[in-house]
Here is the input.
Amino acid sequence: MSEIEIRYQQALQHHRAGDQVAAREGYLAVLQDEPDHARALHRLGNLDMRNGDLDSAERLIRRAIQSDPQLAGACNSLGNVLAAQGKYKQAIEAYRAELQQRPDFAVAHHQIGQLFMQLGRLDDALRAVQKSIFHAPEFAAAYNTLGRIYNNRGELAEAAQALRRCLQFDPDNTEARYNLAHVLRRQGDTARAAELVAEVLATEPDHANAHRLRGQLALERGDSEAALSAFNRTLELVPGDGIALYSLGVIYQRRAVYERAIAYFEQATTKLPDYADAWCNLGSSLRAVGQLEPAETAFRKALTHQQRHPEALSGLAGVLEMLGRQDESLALLQPHIEAGSAPPQLAVVYATALQRLERSDEAIELLSTTLANNPESFDRMVLHFKLGELHDRRREFEQAFGHFEAANRLCRTDFDPDNHRQLGDRIVS
Here is the structure.
């Protein structure tokens, strides 16, 4: 063994032992005598990558590949550096170069799959990760990624199966447990999802995503206090988390504390400017406090990001109707009504505009048809309330009372007596 090789091996031992300072000194000493020593260049580049000096890492690893194009692992390391720099397409090419030398290298296939997922190319991502698993059937991280891909494709049963497979090979994989909870929530198994979230937080009390999911699950079961606690903890861990800000807005909107809801929704739209739901709920809260022009702007913002957003369409139409612009309101909703695919909330707003124009017969006919076409929808509640109001104004009290009874049977509310009293005080004031 040559003197240079002895010094390289000594530096490598320091590297593997975690002594980065001694390893760096050793690699530099090797390169001083042999500037094109490929393995020393590669290892030194990996050290720089670990320390965040990505430009230096890329330069060193490219020199290593130039010096020895067949150096095992160098192209893979280059892919890691490029991926960390956000150069995903270049990183994929680097990983593919590694696979030309080692076609069965499961890690590179997996990394390609992860990058394709980042690029939104889910079919390509799926194929790459499946190749990874073909070459390494017990590769737990690949099953976790496979679960995320299936989740993004909306194939929830396959996602859950892949994530359970990951946990079979790696029972302590916190991310897979969190991801499985996310999938189960989407499948409607909220009880098991909550159990998994609790397991994640027992292991990692500062897992921000798990706290956010805990809040979403609490919000869905109507436990607003638990949801508040979870979302506030999320913001402690990740200040400015857009979903947590949005969710806090939802809680205060439901409590009719609109000023606080507006403040949270405004922050959420700053963090998530393309999130139509945040703009829509901002518009709803602004409308509730009488700020109709700003509400119109918020609803229009929501529609620029999701043209057929039903709540934004109905919200905007409702604001236009409140501003006395009934013709604009009707024109906005008419294409959806005529298509016969309008969700219940759009039909209610359209019926309200018809009512203002003294066309209550048309309004009742529209709402009755919509009610018949939506036998399972929770939004049947608003249809019954509106039909009750229309019949009541026509002094058709028996029909009105029937609709009001049906609406209240469907109505769910997170009633807060203190907030109710505060709302009454504000109205009186």
User: Anything to note?
Assistant: The CA atoms of residues 338 and 366 lie 11 Å apart. The radius of gyration is 29 Å.
